[in-house]
Design a protein that fits this description.
heterodimer; A: 113 residues; mainly beta; B: 114 residues; 4-stranded antiparallel sheet; 49% strand; globular
């Protein structure tokens, strides 16, 4: 699975958009980009995933560059409850097999008043 | 509600003792996983199971053992052979066929060796 690079930490004011970048320059054509977040002392929570098109759900938007070498997770209106560690993961999606996702150290997002 | 239940939430153990962490899911998922997390670190895969009665080692399986006798249960035993067992342990599950690859996590079990 391709390796990802994320900033160690970021700050965001409450109510503003939080844009979390992820670099995955060695991504293969069949690898998906996944985002999870982990609030302190809890299990990680799935946010969104995509292959090449931009994706949006009720939690966030995922913007993947045309060359797929980087992506950005956007939380449109960050709240204090969005303070967490955000993990960007890339892996091949193969149905019928275990999803062995590799979690790095992620980006610690601090949302402030 | 459907989900993953881990117990106990906190556990203390003396050196040399084995301890078993419970993980139960009612999501009807085929695959289950155990991860370990140390302070300030990411998650590392210990063991995973794709179907009942089958499991494979992850990246850090030494000193751990698992069983998968039922689809909904995947207990993890931390043995005395594990050199540094104090950590936060997370269980997860995912659907098999036609899955999006999404993992569903429990709330974790924090093990402290005294």
């Amino acid at each position: 699975d391709a390796k990802t690079t994320q900033p160690t930490s970021m700050d965001c004011a409450e109510g503003r958009a939080a844009n979390l970048p992820c670099n995955h320059s060695t991504i293969s054509g069949n690898e998906y980009v996944y985002w999870y977040r982990q609030i302190h002392s809890q299990g990680p929570q799935y946010i969104i995933h995509g292959l090449k098109n931009n994706e949006t759900n009720e939690m966030a938007s995922l913007i993947i560059t045309e060359d797929r070498k980087s992506s950005t997770l956007i939380l449109p209106h960050a709240t204090l409850r969005d303070t967490a560690v955000y993990y960007c993961i890339v892996r091949v999606l193969t149905t019928g097999t275990a999803s062995k996702l590799t979690f790095g150290t992620g980006t610690r997002l601090q949302v402030t008043l | 509600d459907g989900g993953i239940t881990q117990s106990p939430k906190y556990l203390f153990r003396k050196e040399g003792q084995n301890v078993t962490l419970s993980c139960e899911q009612n999501l009807n998922h085929d695959a289950m996983y155990w991860y370990r997390q140390d302070p300030g670190q990411g998650l590392r895969l210990i063991y995973y199971s794709q179907i009942v009665n089958d499991f494979q080692k992850g990246d850090i399986a030494e000193g751990y053992s698992v069983s998968r006798e039922k689809k909904e249960s995947f207990p993890l035993t931390v043995t005395s052979a594990q050199k540094n067992p104090t950590a936060f342990y997370l269980c997860a599950s995912s659907a098999g066929q036609a899955s999006t690859g999404e993992l569903f996590f429990g709330e974790g079990s924090r093990l402290t060796v005294l």
